[in-house]
User: Fold this.
Amino acid sequence: MRAALCSLTLLMLSLKLVLAQKPPQLTIRRLDGTSISIAEAEDFARKTLATTQVTGAQIVVINEGRVVWSAAFGLRKHQPKTPMLPDTTTWAASITKAVFATYVMQLVERRELSLDLPVADQLPQPLNAYKAYGEIASEVVNDPRWHEVTPRMLLAHTGGLLNFVALEPDKKMHLHFKPGTQFCYSNEGINLIQFLVEQKLGQPLERLMQDAIFSPLHMSRTGLIFRTDFAANIADRYGAKEQFLSETRRLSARAAGSMTTSADDLGHFACALLNGKLLKPATRKAMLAPFIQIRTRSQFPFRPDAPEGKEGQAVGLAYGMGWGLLTKTRFGPAFFKEGHGEGAQNYLILFEKSKSGMILLTNSDNGELAFRPLLEKILGDTVTPWEWEGYTPDLILENRKFQ
Assistant:
């Protein structure tokens, strides 16, 4: 009798636990308040990715600060044919910049780095005295404006440096305008902040960010450099005609774009950021405060006399600390970062008011062809400045001429 009562009690407890568990969400809430079923979202994504010939993709959708859908499509490798998984490690490319900027704001919060003290004043030696910059920094350190360049300006891509030093005729760093006055997307500027951080803290960036962000958030498929434990589940990269381009093995840490990750891991990061687990509210507000308004029709290439476009102005396009900003959309403010590289096209956008967002990672040069239909249909994102991003089919095809 006692045994029967014990069994009944255990059965009732088990039933209560089952009933207490929240059922899995079967719908995604769009930004306008309407919903789409996960089944419909998955079917639409599969067809869209097939039509646009994207080799492999990962998608994460966030509602109210939590992941409600994570899925993978296509292949991570052609030889042998191996499916993409939600936790497959892929190359995040320039999404690295936004994650790095979040880490920099942690340093600012702890008063280990100043955003407004010029870089030249935070380094114990002139920039060209360091081996890493000896060959390329001689011109810039002799420019009087160099002593105006701050980490804040570099994080907002307003430091005056071109995207890559290789674009300069003499292959040396130059300032092309008064720092802080114009937007010019610059990998060189972000990597310069990395150099400053490593000099101040005396550790390589891959270790610093592992300890500060990746490990605490259990981002086990993420790193700034390749690790052997990634090898069993990592995506190769493919061109527009499905041709093999490269394995994903980043061996040098670059704050501007070396991070490999998965959409699942980036989902952990995005939710932690939205829910205030990475930065204090005031620090996050400072990171996402507009430093410069952007009025140009397109992000690339940089031109001092670039024509203005109405698209970005309509949504309050701006840049903060490492993040692009949409300051006046009908869904409230949003922040975003794209990642563009050979065989890796990625996008991440988060809306502050609803704590909603979407992450798209692909291992294909065709990835950008799928972004607009996926974002509009699944998340209801009709405010991303598609032309400025270069996410319209004609611009994507035009940009391939310069790759």
Observations:
- The two ends are 78 Å apart (CA to CA).
- Residues 3-20 have pLDDT under 50 and may be disordered.
